[in-house]
Amino acid sequence: MLALEIEKTEVKLFMSKLLREELFDTFEIRSVEIATNTRISIDGTPESPEADFPLWGEIRPLVYEIIKLCTKPRHVKIVFSKKDASEIHTNAAALFLNLTYENDSVTFTTASAQKEFILDKSLDTNWDEWIRSFFIKSRLQVFDRE
User: Fold this and answer.
1) 13-28: pLDDT as tens digits
2) What is the number of domains present in the chain?
């Protein structure tokens, strides 16, 4: 599991990119929670077993409007997942990237679900390396969270 944080000076710019640009649009959405004066939750679970999870690009305009219309959020949590987890590792059932915004800071944690239980950590290693590469390619300033 990886724990990363956006540089404090980059949080405002990052949130703008998250809500206005296509940076995360290919990630699936498992859930979104926004806490302002009220708590707003979006459950990305498909209504039928044949359907896919919605992509961030489909949900992003709605989340942007919610945040724009409300007071500054106290807390935002978004659970992203990689659409084609098997591209990262053959034993990957699901790969998660959890974003948390709170107290003017943004943190990310990674998680994975295996198809078949094994003690080998290569799934987590591959996913963490892919995420680090994603941030580098995206030119986002992140550092390991202690």
Assistant:
1) 999 999 999 999 999 9
2) 1
145 domain-assigned:
no
Q: Is residue 146 situated within a structural domain?
A: no
Structure tokens at 19: 């809500």
Return d(Cα 81, Cα 56) in angstroms, integer: 10
Q: How far apart are CA 57 and CA 15, in angstroms?
A: 15
Q: Sort 101 into a burial class: Cβ within 10 Å, 0-12 / 13-18 / 19+.
A: buried
Greatest alpha-carbon span in the chain = 47
Under the phi-then-psi rule, with left for phi > 0, alpha for psi from -120 to 50, and beta for the rest, what region is 79?
beta
Segments forming the whole domain that contains residue 21: 3-140
Residue 87 lies in a domain: yes
Helices 11-20, 56-69: crossing angle, 10 deg rounding: 120
Quick: pLDDT tens for 28-54.
999 999 998 889 999 999 999 999 999
As a dihedral over the C-alpha atoms of residue 80, residue 85, residue 89, residue 91, rounded to 10 degrees, the angle is: 100
How many CA atoms, within 13 angstroms, populate the side-chain half-sphere of residue 66? Answer: 19
**73 inside domain:** yes
